[in-house]
Amino acid sequence: MQFFWDSLRSALLLIREMDPELVNVVWVSLKVSLSSTAVASLLGVPLGFAVAMGSFPGRRGVITVLNTLLAVPTVVIGLFVYTFISRRGILGDLDLLYTQKAIIIGQTLLVLPIVAAFTISALSRVDTRYRKTALTLGANAWQTGLLILREARYGIGAAIVAAFGRAIAEIGVSMMLGGNARGFTRTMTTAMALEYDKGQFILAVALGMILLTVSLVVNIVLNLCQGRLEK
To answer: Which residues of the chain fall short of a pLDDT of 50?
Structure first.
């Protein structure tokens, strides 16, 4: 028990002093996770809207595939992307492997199904009378779509938050595609794994505390925004 409290005190001291290595690791994690979440949101929300509001052959199959992809292990995504961007891959000439761009690509593919599937779920809960009433009052398809998106904004916001949480907490994609290069592609999760393997827990504990704090802050901000919008 004493070991735990000693590690906790040392970790808090490391955070208070703004250790350069700690700051760099947190910055890289936030950068790649926010970037991948933004790209996934730009692609996933329209995709989810098209599937939820559309009527086309295979629609049920698309939903099933998206729901299945929610459980895909990160190492599978990492291996899939690796085959394309490695030296012998189709995109090998772009030199993407072991870069932050590679991590962003992998994390985007990882969280895209989350955004799309949760967006479909959020839109499906919107009362169909909103759509019928808007069309009856003369709204065009674009205006009707915006109205439905507005009604489902809380669910879509939760989808984006869930995607960010999955991205910043994953380790397989970052390790396989980023290479855990110090000062360049080392994220919070890969750094924690490395420090654990080395038997040095202080930095790992500090990063774990920051990771939990980031998740807490994101959810608090979401709840505050929802509260203001409801007023």
So the answer is: 229, 231
Give the amino acid at 146.
L
Q: What is the Cα–Cα distance from 200 to 214, expressed in whole angstroms?
A: 23
Quick one: which of 6, 74, 51, 33 has its CA closest to 185?
A: 33
User: What architecture (CATH level 2) is domain 2-230?
Assistant: Orthogonal Bundle (1.10)
Q: What is residue 135's predicted lDDT score, i.e. its pLDDT?
A: 66
Q: Where are the domains of the chain?
A: 2-230
Smallest CA-to-CA distance from 131 within 155, 147, 150, 152 is with 147
Cβ neighbours of 117 (radius 10 Å): 23
Residue 178 is predicted with a pLDDT of 94
Please tell me the distance from the alpha carbon of residue 101 to that of residue 36, in angstroms, as a whole number. 9
Query: What is the pTM assigned to this prediction?
Result: 0.90
